C-alpha cells in the first residue's frame, strides 16, 4: 500500500517542480504581501530558531540554556495573554507564536528527548492554531505539530493517541488541497521574513503528507478496524488511478495498485462489507493480470527470476486474502443465522454490506470501482451471507483450494511462520464449515479431518523445534490441536445423547480423547516455557 501512495505523492511533487518557475512568477505578489508581526513576537520567533540551532551543537553552555529558559517564560506570558484576551492579538502574531512553540517542541523531542516538555509545546502550538489550521500561513505548522506530537506519543508508547493525530493531519491536508492540482501555496512567515531559506512550500506540504501516510499505513497494518477515513482516501486514489493504471506501460504501477487494493480488504471484511471486499480483491486480480501481460511482453523483465518471484509472491498473497475473506464470510454468515433465529424479521442472506451504525453518512458510501464493473462481473466467490449448507460447501471448497495453493509457495522450509498461519486458517475453515452441518456424525467427520490437517503440520514443524521459531510455532499448533480435540469430545458427548446404549468401547474412546487433549495442552505449556527461556 505504501508503495502505491508513495508513487502518487512523488508524481505530484514532480508535477509541481516542473511548473515551479511559472508558480514563482504567479506568487511574487503573494509572497510580498504585508506580514503584520509585532516586534515582541518577532524577537520570540527569532529566538526560537536560535534555540534550535544551539541544540544542534554537541555542547550547550549554561548561559545558552538560561537564554532559552527566558524565551520560554516570555512565550508562556504571551500565550496566557492570547488565551485570556484573544481579540487583542494580531493573526500573524498568533501564527508566529505557534511556530515558536513548534520550534521548541521540535528541539525537546529530537535533540533533548524530553518527551513531556515536547508534548506541552506541541499542545500549545495546536491550541493557538485551533480554527486557523486551513489558513495559508498556518497549514504547514498545524500539520507539522500534529505529526510531531504523534511522535511524542509513539516514544511514550501511547499508540492509542497516535492515530487521531495522524487522522486529523490527513484531514487538514485533504481539506486544504481538496485533492486538486491547483490550490493556494502555503505561506511560511519565517521564510518571508528571511529568518530561514525560502523553499517550495507545496513540495514541503506533500512531503509532510507522505510522512503522515507512511505512519498511518504502519498503524493500519497493525489494526485496520478504525481507519475509516484512511480507507476511503486510499480507495478514492485507487479509483482515480484505474484508467491510468490500465494504460500504463510501467509494470510497477499495476502491481502497486493491486497490493493497495487487496490490503483494504482487512478493513472491509472486519466490518462485514463483503461485497466491497470482493470488488477490491477481484480488482487486484485483474490488475495482476495486466502486470503479467506486460511482464511476458518484456523479454528482459520476463527473463528475470527476481521479477517472476515478486509476481508469484503478490499472486499468493492475494490468494491468502481471498481465503481469509471466505473464512470470515462463513463465520459472519453463521452468526447472522443465529441472530435470525431469534429475530424473525431478519433476512439471513441479506445482500447489503454492513457498516457500523456509528459511521458518519459520508463513510457509508459503497467503495466500488465503476470503471471496472464489466471486467469484474464473473467472480466465483459469493459476497452475500451464506444461508445454506450447499452455499457453505462452495465457499469452503474455494477456501481450501486457495490455502492449499498458498501452502505450495509458503512451505515450512521456506517460510515457517506463514506456513503455520495457513494451517491454522485451514483449521478455522473446517471449524466454521462444520457449524453449517446439522448432522452430528458429519460434524465429527469434518472435525477429524481438521485434526488430521493440524497433526500433519505438527509432524512437519516438530523437526524444527531445535530453534526458537520452531518451538513458538509448535506451541501454536499444539494449542489448536487441543481445542480441536476438545470440540471433537463435545461432539462425541452430544452423540451419546442420541445413543440408546453406551458401550465400553465408546467410554474408552472418550478417555482416549481426554488424554490427547491433556497431552496437547501439556505440550503447549512445555513449548511456552521453552520460548520464554529463550527470551
TrEMBL record:
InterPro entries referenced in this protein's UniProt entry, alphabetically: KBP (IPR022083)
GO cellular component, one term: cytoskeleton
Domain of life assignment: Eukaryota
Record's keyword terms, sorted: Cytoplasm, Cytoskeleton
Pfam family, one: KBP_C
Location of the protein in the cell: Cytoplasm, Cytoskeleton
Primary site of residence: cytoplasm
Family designation: Belongs to the KIF-binding protein family.
The name this protein goes by in its record: KIF-binding protein
Amino acid at each position: 500500500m505504501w508503495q502505491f501512495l508513495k508513487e502518487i505523492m512523488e508524481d505530484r511533487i514532480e508535477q509541481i517542480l516542473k511548473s515551479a518557475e511559472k508558480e514563482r512568477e504567479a506568487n511574487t505578489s503573494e509572497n510580498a504581501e504585508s506580514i503584520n508581526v509585532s516586534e515582541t513576537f518577532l524577537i520570540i520567533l527569532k529566538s526560537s530558531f536560535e534555540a534550535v540551532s544551539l541544540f544542534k551543537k554537541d555542547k550547550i553552555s549554561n548561559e545558552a540554556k538560561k537564554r532559552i529558559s527566558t524565551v520560554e517564560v516570555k512565550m508562556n506570558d504571551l500565550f496566557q495573554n492570547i488565551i485570556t484576551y484573544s481579540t487583542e492579538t494580531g493573526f500573524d502574531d498568533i501564527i508566529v507564536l505557534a511556530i515558536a512553540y513548534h520550534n521548541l517542541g521540535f528541539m525537546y523531542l529530537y535533540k533533548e528527548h524530553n518527551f513531556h516538555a515536547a508534548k506541552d509545546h506541541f499542545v500549545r502550538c495546536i491550541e493557538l492554531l485551533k480554527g486557523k489550521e486551513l489558513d495559508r500561513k498556518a497549514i504547514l505548522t498545524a500539520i507539522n505539530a500534529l505529526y510531531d506530537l504523534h511522535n511524542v506519543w509513539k516514544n511514550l508508547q501511547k499508540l492509542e493517541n497516535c492515530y487521531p493525530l495522524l487522522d486529523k493531519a490527513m484531514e487538514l491536508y485533504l481539506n486544504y488541497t481538496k485533492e486538486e492540482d491547483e490550490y493556494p501555496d502555503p505561506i511560511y512567515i519565517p521564510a518571508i521574513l528571511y529568518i530561514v531559506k525560502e523553499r517550495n512550500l507545496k513540495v514541503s506540504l506533500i512531503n509532510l503528507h507522505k510522512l503522515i501516510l507512511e505512519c498511518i499505513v504502519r498503524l493500519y497494518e497493525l489494526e485496520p478496524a478504525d481507519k475509516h477515513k484512511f480507507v476511503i482516501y486510499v480507495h478514492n486514489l485507487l479509483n482515480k488511478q484505474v484508467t491510468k493504471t490500465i494504460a500504463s506501460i510501467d509494470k510497477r504501477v499495476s502491481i502497486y495498485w493491486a497490493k493497495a487494493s487487496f490490503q483494504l480488504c482487512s478493513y472491509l471484511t472486519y466490518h462485514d462489507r463483503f461485497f466491497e471486499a470482493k470488488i477490491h480483491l477481484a480488482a487486484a486480480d485483474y490488475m495482476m493480470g495486466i502486470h503479467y501481460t506486460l511482464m511476458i511482453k518484456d523479454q528482459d523483465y520476463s527473463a528475470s527470476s527476481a521479477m517472476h518471484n515478486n509476481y508469484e509472491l503478490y499472486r499468493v498473497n492475494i490468494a491468502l486474502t481471498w481465503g481469509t475473506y471466505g473464512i470470515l464470510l462463513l463465520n459472519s454468515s453463521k452468526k447472522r443465522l443465529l441472530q435470525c433465529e431469534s429475530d424473525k424479521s431478519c433476512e439471513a442472506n441479506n445482500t447489503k454490506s454492513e457498516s457500523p451504525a456509528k459511521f458518519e453518512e459520508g463513510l457509508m458510501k459503497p467503495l466500488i470501482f465503476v470503471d471496472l464493473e464489466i471486467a469484474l462481473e464473473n467472480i466465483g466467490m459469493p459476497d452475500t451471507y451464506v444461508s445454506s449448507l450447499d452455499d457453505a460447501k462452495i465457499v469452503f471448497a474455494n477456501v481450501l483450494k486457495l490455502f492449499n495453493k498458498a501452502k505450495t509457495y509458503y512451505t515450512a522450509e521456506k517460510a515457517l511462520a506463514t506456513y503455520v498461519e495457513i494451517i491454522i486458517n485451514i483449521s478455522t475453515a473446517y471449524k466454521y464449515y462444520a457449524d453449517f452441518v446439522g448432522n452430528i456424525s458429519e460434524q465429527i467427520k469434518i472435525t477429524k479431518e481438521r485434526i488430521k490437517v493440524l497433526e500433519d503440520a505438527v509432524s512437519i514443524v516438530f523437526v524444527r523445534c531445535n530453534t526458537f521459531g520452531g518451538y513458538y510455532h509448535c506451541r501454536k499448533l499444539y494449542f489448536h490441536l487441543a481445542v480441536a480435540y476438545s470440540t471433537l469430545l463435545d461432539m462425541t458427548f452430544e452423540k451419546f445423547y442420541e445413543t440408546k446404549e453406551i458401550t465400553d468401547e465408546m467410554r474408552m474412546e472418550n478417555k482416549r480423547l481426554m488424554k490427547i487433549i491433556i497431552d496437547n495442552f501439556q505440550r503447549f505449556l512445555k513449548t511456552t516455557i521453552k520460548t520464554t527461556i529463550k527470551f
